[in-house]
Specification:
Strand content: under 5%
Shape: elongated
Strand order of the largest sheet: 1-2
Number of strands: 2
Structural class: mainly alpha
Number of helices: 6
Order of helices and strands: HHEEHHHH
Radius of gyration: 24 Å
Oligomer: single chain
Length: 136
């Protein structure tokens, strides 16, 4: 099957498919006599795994590992669970960081009158600890 057929089946762009091949995230497809890539059902499976893994936040390197694990008959579910657990912990850390950012932005918005005056508690807080004094 050609790249456009694979793109339709996986929901990926042809550009993404070529990138995943170039980065060796999927196995290299065979080439026809005229140099066109010839994809198999296994490539569709590999690309489907990559697409799903990317949607939940796995990096390209992690996607490569997940594809490798999926097609390795002697893998253990413990290996897959460990990688997934590490990703979940990373996502939870990012969520916690975003919640801190959210609270700060909400506090600034509550403090700032948003009027025509130059005085702004947001700028005051951002400037706290700076050496430059802005004249009001």
């Amino acid at each position: 099957m050609n790249i456009s057929e694979v793109a339709k089946k996986t929901g990926l762009t042809t550009k993404s498919i070529r990138l995943y091949e170039e980065k060796k995230i999927i196995s290299s497809p065979a080439r026809s006599e005229n140099g066109y890539r010839i994809y198999s059902a296994k490539h569709v499976d590999e690309l489907s795994i990559v697409a799903k893994a990317k949607r939940v936040g796995f990096t390209l390197d992690e996607c490569r590992d997940m594809v490798s694990l999926a097609f390795r008959p002697n893998r253990t579910s413990a290996e897959v669970k460990s990688r997934t657990s590490e990703k979940l912990a990373e996502v939870k850390r990012k969520i916690a960081e975003l919640q801190v950012i959210e609270k700060q932005l909400e506090a600034w918005l509550t403090q700032c009158p948003g009027d025509a005056n130059a005085a702004c508690p947001i700028v005051d807080d951002l400037m706290q600890g700076c050496n430059t004094k802005v004249k009001k």
